[in-house]
Design goal:
Layout lengths: L1 H7 L5 H31 L20 H5 L14 E12 L12 E13 L3 E4 L2 E16 L8 E2 L2 E2 L5 E13 L3 E15 L4 E21 L2 E16 L12 E14 L3 E14 L6 E15 L4 E14 L6 E15 L1
Antiparallel strand pairs: 1-2, 1-15, 2-4, 3-4, 4-7, 5-6, 7-8, 8-9, 9-10, 10-11, 11-12, 12-13, 13-14, 14-15
Length: 342
């Protein structure tokens, strides 16, 4: 469709053609940012360990108990290592800015289905005090807009259902950790696809080498504070009908996160967090930098080690050096997860 439009506007100025090309690029960027935000929310929710027992060691009943009786242990049979993990997750949230537009005032709901399978090696000691592990995974996500608020609701001049998209992301990574420090290094490929009356097929692809490093403070029993750095470089291919370079969205990201987790009883987790991210676009034909500020609060309930539910809210704003790319969004939603290992 974009090719037909471009051929019919040959008499327009180069500036008009440039503006025409950036419109689909902006919609693609909204999908990319939505997927990144959703995946980050899911990854904040960590599986609970069995309350009361850590590595077979029972917590002290009173101060000085170990001096009287020695540390007490629970005999636990060693389970066979499980090399595969499966995640099924459904997330529904309402947002006041579904297309991440600068001045959008129309709300909608976003529904996200995530399916992920991971193959992993058994953790081994790589160097003093640190254990390492390698894994490879495949993540699939499907995004539907307006299921509750109306699929044909007009937002920014188009039915919101045209914003639907799917992603497929294979990845490999290696990770290390000890009691306090952790980190990972990996490579991910992602393909973004849609299937609607306006555009069909793959509209965006990226190869992403990434790095994560963090430190976790155990503040008190069942209370932790994490400080985490995430960095990546996105080598992209964007569908722009030949009017812009295919690597128009190439960029480097650097993010710092502060995450507080509080386990209440045996089932509840409360988790406020703050994330600051700076993105620098690296294509030679543009000069753009974005700053993202994201505040979120998550409450999760674990029915058992495999099944959990959550409610969350988040507020995010982006400040961009490129005109027309600032936005603010407020989201409130719920999610449900099933984890299995085999």
């Amino acid at each position: 469709m974009h090719l037909k439009i471009a051929s019919s506007l040959t008499g327009l100025s180069a500036g008009a053609l440039f503006l025409l090309a950036t419109l689909p690029a902006a919609a693609q960027q909204a999908a990319i940012d939505t997927a990144q935000s959703t995946t980050t929310t899911q990854q904040l929710q960590k599986p609970l360990v069995t309350p009361g027992v850590v590595n077979g060691q029972v917590p002290l009943l009173y101060e000085g108990e170990a001096e009287d009786t020695g540390q007490q242990f629970v005999l636990q049979p060693k389970e066979a290592f499980k090399y595969f993990q499966f995640l099924g997750d459904f997330q529904l949230y309402r947002t006041n800015n579904p297309t991440l537009a600068p001045a959008n005032k129309v709300a909608s709901d976003v529904n996200v289905l995530t399916l992920q399978v991971v193959a992993q090696t058994e953790a081994t000691e790589w160097f003093d005090g640190f254990q390492g592990q390698a894994r490879a995974g495949l993540r699939f996500q499907d995004y539907w807009y307006g299921v509750l608020s109306g699929r044909n609701q007009i937002i920014n001049g188009a039915p919101i259902k045209l914003s639907d998209f799917t992603t497929i992301s294979p990845y490999v990574e290696a990770s290390i950790r000890n009691d306090e420090y952790y980190g990972s290094l990996g490579l991910r490929y992602s393909s973004y696809d849609n299937d609607n009356a306006v555009a069909k097929g793959t509209f965006y692809q990226e190869y992403v080498p990434y790095l994560t490093a963090g430190y976790q403070w155990n503040l008190a029993d069942k209370k932790t504070l994490q400080f985490q750095y995430d960095g990546d470089y996105r080598k992209t291919t964007t569908a722009t009908a030949g009017l812009l370079p295919s690597g128009w969205n190439d960029r480097a990201d650097n993010a710092l996160s502060l995450i507080y987790s509080y386990i209440v009883g045996e089932h509840w987790v409360f988790q406020p967090s703050y994330r600051l991210m700076w993105s620098r676009y690296t294509n030679d034909q543009r000069s753009r930098s974005d700053i993202y500020n994201t505040f979120s609060f998550l409450v999760a309930y674990y029915f058992n080690e495999a099944v959990s539910a959550r409610a969350f809210t988040s507020y995010e704003w982006r400040s961009s050096s490129e005109t027309g790319n600032n936005y603010q969004s407020w989201n409130v939603g719920v999610g449900f997860s099933i984890n299995a290992a085999f």
